[in-house]
Amino acid sequence: MSKSVHLEEIPYRADSCSLYDGLRDLPGAAFLDSSLPHASGGRFDILTAQPLDDAPPQLAVDADETAAAAFFGDLRDYHRERFADIAPASADIPFCGGILGYLGYDCGNRLHGIDDAAPQPAMPASGLRAYDWCLVQDHLLRRAVLVTLPGVDGARRADLHARLRRPAANHTQAFALAAPFRANVDAAGYRQAFERIQAYIQAGDCYQVNLAQCFSAACHGDPFSAYRALRAVAAAPFSAYLALDDGGALLSLSPERFLALHGHRVETAPIKGTRPRHENPVADAQAAASLRDSVKDRAENLMIVDLLRNDLGRSCVPGSIHVDRLFEVQSFPTVHHLVSIISGELQPGRSAWELLRDSFPGGSITGAPKRRAMQVIAELETRARAAYCGSVLYVSADGRMDSNIAIRSLLCDAGQVHCWGGGGIVADSCWEAEYQETFDKVGRFLRVLEDLG
To answer: Band of the pLDDT at 160, cuts 50, 70, 90?
Structure first.
């Protein structure tokens, strides 16, 4: 017999940050943030905290390829057992409790049997938690709903109502850097890695490789203040703020969907191709037109579309995969992107976990062919990616899933803040342009945080 979730309306607020303020002192607080201030944005924000004591499986430190694949099976089994018979709340409730958190890029290395030579971060390769309640803000219907699973009693609901009805807090906890950001590679080092990739491409070893660099700075203060400052200038529809166990935080301002699953419909929306925005409307329109007409960027995008069609083919019904949109220019606060959308129908008997296992990590941040590109990344990048280029995701108790590609993401950890920027390198790439693109993507982020102090 299906179990119903409990829905209670609370006053809607246009800015979910003020609601998160009432929850963020609770353990395991998480904020999936789709709204874009001062612009048209996503529809749903999801806020939650107080994860269950019986936590989902996590990826073991020493997991090999077989163990990494089994990890996703363990997550499937946990999800089925812990959230058995939960009935879908409604089409307007994307998450009603379930599993939420991140999978780091290193999960992909384990899945593909790749050893990363870069020093590994202290951050675990996976950080997934199970929740039995959430707040969903629907910006289309201007509605806020507190959603609780069976077992959440009246006393807990009353406490959550009190927290969520608090007036917006006065933000006094500052965030500041002790020194400007420094890159982990200089121009000469980037060029050397670029030329190595070109040699692999010319040898027919691979067709595209995503190469990233990392910018780091000592910091102090409240990471959520940093997130709010970044959100004000670079908000994106797949943003997230996750409080980590050690007092750190993962800040993601991602514009890119990885995988979504609603019913049996699967969708992925890779980004390949970038131009910086301009304050001058004419220059800005020219930049968008340049991206739309770029033979190189369209070819690069098409490589990843083909890769993702292949990835989805492992989990979807044969013949069901379609390219719904190809080479669509989408504009965000700091950049224009070239975006394609691919969909398919999930095979009967498969869940979100098999879909994630068979597609992780996203091809738009590896290159093609995927495994060889990842081997080259592991060889050439001198800092492990941690959560960057992994995914922030949820799998609802009723099986619905959505996830991002954790680009435009920062990690606050042990008094340091790290921010990565990368781009795809193909045969006709120019190293200077690719190097500059890494700054175009995250330079605004770095300046915003440097200006905080």
So the answer is: very high
Percent residues over pLDDT 90 in the chain:
85
CATH number of 6-451: 3.60.120.10
Q: Please indicate whether residue 272 is annotated as part of the active site.
A: yes
What pLDDT score was predicted for residue 38?
Answer: 45
pTM: 0.94
Is 437 noted as a catalytic residue in this protein? no
pLDDT by residue (tens digit) across 198-215?
999 999 999 999 999 999
Instruction: List the catalytic residue out of 3, 8, 65, 256.
Output: 256
Q: Which pLDDT tens digit goes with each residue over 399-449?
A: 999 999 999 999 999 999 999 999 999 999 999 999 999 998 999 999 999
The 3 state secondary structure assigned to the chain is: CCECCEEEEECCCCCCHHHHCCCCCCCCCEEEECCCCCCCCCCEEEEECCCCCCCCCCCCCCCCHHHHHHHHHHHHHHHHHHCCCECCCCCCCCCCCEEEEEECHHHHHHHCCCCCCCCCCCCCCEEEEEECEEEEEECCCCEEEEEECCCCCHHHHHHHHHHHCCCCCCCCCCEEECCCCEECCCHHHHHHHHHHHHHHHHCCCCCEEEEEEEEEEEEEECHHHHHHHHHHHHCCCEEEEEECCCCCEEEEEECCEEEEEECCEEEECCEEEEEECCCCHHHHHHHHHHHHHCHHHHHHHHHHHHHHHHHHHCCECCCCCEEEEEEEEEECCCEEEEEEEEEEEECCCCCHHHHHHHHCCCHHHCEECHHHHHHHHHHHCCCCCCCCCCEEEEEECCCCEEEECCCCEEEEECCEEEEEEEEEECCCCCHHHHHHHHHHHHHHHHHHHHHCC
Which of 65, 195, 272, 328 is catalytic? The answer is 272
